[in-house]
Please model this.
Amino acid sequence: MIRVLIADDQPLVRRGLALILGPDPEFEVVGEAEDGARAVALARELRPDVVVMDIRMPVLDGVQATAELARTLPGVRVLALSTFDMDEYVVAALRAGAYGFLPKDVSPEELGAAVRIVHGGEAAVAPRLLTRLLSAYVRTPAPARPAAAAVPPDMTPREREIWQLLATGLDNAAIAAELDISVSTVKNHITGIFGKLGVRDRAQAVIAAYESGLVEAGCGSG
Model:
């Protein structure tokens, strides 16, 4: 059973999410929080597997709460909720340590699937959707955005090539076909890329590609 904590400042949203997940025997909704500070406190007390976290909340917003959980409770995985007109907050949440994000109008099936994916340690973010969000994000002035990151000096030309293809939204099979190599070879290279970038998953690797200048706005494939 996957233990889930729901954090949202709107009671109706919290109740709706609980009603979606609660009846499924695979999930147990262990608590509800009305702000980010309460979400952190309850996560420390209840130790859920997954926190479904609204990004915009009072007292402590979802991005700050996600960063605090990633720092102090790395075993608790965050699935961020947002709307598509708040791209900079989505990217900030992923950078802070969220394992994925969903729109607030998500279907029950998509919510359940995303919680399962995040619980399994994978990123619940469609690469093509992420590239579209990032394309909009990098075109919007954001003084708080961190300075451009450098491409790791020990990254090989092949790793750089695969990183760039990954960042434009291609999955492993498509990258393998593009480069005429095996999927297992692509997976091995991606593991090395993650290590050199110091990132955990594809979502963070895509963010790093945009921030390093390897990929520019508008060049995503989806």
